[in-house]
Amino acid sequence: MNATDNERLVKQYFEHFNNHDWRKMADMYSETADFKDPSLGQGIVKQTREQIVKKYEELSQMFPDVKDEVVSMYPSGGQHVIVEFVSTGTAPDSSKFELPICTIFTFEKGQIVKDFTYYDNFQE
Question: Where is the SnoaL-like domain (predicted)?
């Protein structure tokens, strides 16, 4: 895989996210992938595809219109794509959120094996 292939996969990933097709999105990961995500706890947490689907199903129940808008993509070597994006959504009580996020995706054989996500999780 080269940087262009990985960029194409990232675009596909965000298309699945914005369509709330959590199964297709989860299938882009290896069977068990490494995550760094403040919502999952400290350090590296392994997640299966089933756990990924469950997490995002819960997210879309809390924010039915959740969507991500990619700001920039930075391919890095043959395995990584760094993505800046803004996640937005509206809760059932009409409160809205807008969260800038940066994720480093690591690819092996066309699948995401690492998803290291950074954002300010101390927002009001």
Answer: 10-113
